[in-house]
Design brief:
The chain is an all-beta fold and 130 residues long. The protein contains no helices and ten strands. The strands form two sheets. Strands 1, 5, 6, 8, 9 and 10 form a six-stranded antiparallel β-sheet that branches. A four-stranded antiparallel β-sheet has the order 2-3-4-7, with no helix packed on it.
């Protein structure tokens, strides 16, 4: 089951500026256990769990609209599974910053995230395009 909740800026990390329109982007957790891919056309976030390690894969999305909103997209289905999150409310041309993390579900969308599971900076960035 997947959960999504906006979270105030929890991570103070540098992020690259948005990529050019038409670019998809992918990020992995530091150990490769989680992958998040933003598909700019149609605004989909694919979150894949790559390892059977007891951790869930988590996609992180931050809108580049100066709102500071963060969203966490959990894939708790297990190794080899990908969850496709359709994000139709992203306005065309708005940049998004993508990250992939690991975590252990604790009943809330922002509980149990291992914030140290992705220390690679800068984050992948993409731009919405319907």
């Amino acid at each position: 089951m997947a959960a999504v909740v906006p979270v105030a800026a929890l991570i103070a990390m540098g992020m690259a500026g948005p990529a050019h329109a038409g670019e998809n982007c992918t990020d992995q957790s530091d150990n490769g256990g989680a992958t998040a891919t933003f598909k700019h056309h149609g605004e989909h976030l694919l979150v894949t769990d790559n390892f059977r390690d007891g951790n869930s894969a988590i996609g992180h999305l931050e809108m580049d609209d100066h709102s500071g909103d963060h969203y966490w997209y959990w894939n708790r289905k297990g190794k080899g599974e990908t969850v496709d999150f359709n994000l139709p409310n992203i306005v065309d041309g708005v940049g998004v910053h993508i990250g992939a993390f690991l975590g252990n579900w604790q009943g809330t969308a922002d509980g149990g995230i291992d914030h140290n599971s992705n220390n690679v900076i800068p984050y992948c960035s993409g731009e919405a395009l319907n």
